[in-house]
Amino acid sequence: MRPKTNSLTSDRSVVPPLSGREFLDASVHAESGGDDAWRESMRTAIRSASELRQTLNLPAASGAEGDADADYDFPVFVPREFAARMRAGDSNDPLLRQVMPLWHESNTPPGYQSDPVGDLAANVAPGVLHKYEARALMITTGACGVHCRYCFRRSFPYNQAGSRADAFVPSIDYLRQRTDVEEVILSGGDPLTMTDSAIDELLTKIEAIEHVQRVRFHSRMPIVIPSRVNSFLIHRLRQSRLVAWMVVHSNHAAEIDAATAEALARMVDAGIPVLNQSVLLRGVNDEVGALEALSRALLQCRVIPYYLHQLDRVAGAAHFEVATERGRELIGQLESRLPGFAVPRYVAEIAGEKSKTRL
Ligand SMILES: *Cc1c(COP(=O)(O)O)cnc(C)c1O
Predict the structure, then answer these.
(1) Fewer CB atoms inside 10 Å of the end CB: C or N, the chain?
(2) At what angle do helices 169-177 and 196-207 cross, to 10 degrees?
C-alpha cells in the first residue's frame, strides 16, 4: 500500500477553477479509465452466490444446509475489484463473509426485525430521516456498490423514499423549512452510486438552502469501487460553498488495497476530511488483531476511525452478532495499543435516542 503516491498530489496547483456544467465536461477524460470507469464496475458486478463461489474457486454448494444459492430476498452484489481482495479457496475469508448469503439468514431469533433502528418513525418527509439535532439524513437512492449481508436497511422501503424521479422535491422542501438543520447527510443505499450529474443537481439544490453549512457523504463506494472517487467528484466538492465531509465504511484492513488507498488520498489531498465507520462482525473483525490492523491501515491513509457500531438487529443478520461485553473488551485492548484518535467510538443505535449511544 502506497497511499501517499497518487497522481493528484502533484497536480493540486493545476486544479482549474471551473464551475457547474464545465466540471462534467472537463473531467470525463481526466483519468485513466475515465470518470465513468466505476459504472462499468457496477454493470459487471457479481450477482449470485454461485458466481461468487466460481470466482473464488470455492467448492460448489452441497445443499446440505438448505438451498445454498438462496439470497433470502436480498440479492448478491459484489464488485469484481472487491472480490479480488478475498483469498481464493477460503470460505472463511473476512471479506467474503460480509457478502456471501448463508442459510443462517433464514434464522430470525426474537428481537431481530426488519426496521431495527426506528428508521420508519424518523421518516419525517419522503426520503428524509431526522433523528438528531442540527443534522438530517437523506435517503438518496436504494442502490449500493456492495450488498452487505448485515445491512440494517436490507428491508428498507426504498420505493417510498425520495428519489431523483421526484427531483428530491419533498426532501428539499423539508430541509428548507427546517432552519435548525445545519448539516445534510447523504445516505441510502449509497449516495455515490448516483451519477455525476445527479450528484451535481442535488448538491446545487442543497447549496441553495442558506442555513445548511455542511454536506456529509456516508458511502462505501471509495472502499469497494475506488474509481468512483473521480475527478468530477473531487472538483465538485472542492468548489462547493458547503464544507464536505466523507464517512466511508470499511470493516477489515484487507479491504484497503492500493487503489482504495489512492482514492482515500485523493480526497484527503483535496482537503476533504475522511472518517471511517465499521460494524463489529462475528467472523470478520471480532479479534483485537483485526481491529488494530484496520485502524493502522486507516491511519496510513490519513483516515480517522470514527465509529465501531454494534450490529443492528436486522432480520437475517443474527449470525454476525458479537456480545457487547466482548466488544468492550476489544476496545480496551485497542486503547492500550493505539493512539487515542485511532480507537473508534463503540456505539449502538437505539431507536428513539437523541444520538448514538456509547457502549
Ligand atoms: C447515525 C445517524 C446520523 C449521524 O449521526 P452522527 O453521530 O452525527 O454521526 C444522522 N441521522 C441519522 C438518522 C442517523 O442514523
Answers:
(1) N
(2) 30
Cα 88 to middle of ligand 1, angstroms = 36
Check whether 47 has a pLDDT greater than 50: yes
What is the atom index within ligand 1 of the atom nearest the CA of 307? 9
Q: Is 158 in the pocket of ligand 1 (CB under 6 A)?
A: no
How much is the average pLDDT of 353-358? 96
Residue 338, CB half-sphere, CA atoms under 13 Å: how many? 26
Distance CA 316, CA 356 (A): 23
Burial (CB < 10 A; 0-12, 13-18, 19+), residue 114, is: middle
Q: How far apart are CA 3 and CA 113, in angstroms?
A: 40
HSE value, Cβ hemisphere, 13 Å, CA-based, for 216: 16
Beta bridge partners of 218: 247
Render pLDDT for 264-311 as a digit per residue (tens, 0 to 9): 999 999 999 999 999 999 999 999 999 999 999 999 999 999 999 999
Please provide the DSSP assignment of 251-282 as one string. Answer: -SGGG--HHHHHHHHHHHHTT--EEEEEE--T
What CA–CA distance (Å, rounded) separates 136 from 119?
Answer: 12
> Which atom of ligand 1 has the smallest separation from the CA of 347?
7
Q: Please name the residue that has the C-alpha cell 467472523.
A: 283
Mean of the pLDDT values across residues 170-195? 97
From the list 229, 211, 213, 231, the residue with the least C-alpha distance to 221 is 229
132 lines ligand 1 (CB under 6 A): yes
Which of 103-117, 154-168, 228-242 ranks highest by mean pLDDT? 228-242
Ligand 1 centroid, distance to 29 Cα (angstroms): 36
Q: How far is the CA of 132 from the centre of ligand 1 (A)?
A: 7
The pTM of the full predicted model, rounded to 2 decimals, is: 0.90
Query: What is the whole-number distance in angstroms between the Cα of residue 136 and the centre of ligand 1?
Result: 8
Q: Please report, for residues 57, 133, 249, 279, 329, the alpha-carbon distance to residue 294 in angstroms, rounded to integers and kept in the order given.
A: 26, 31, 11, 12, 17
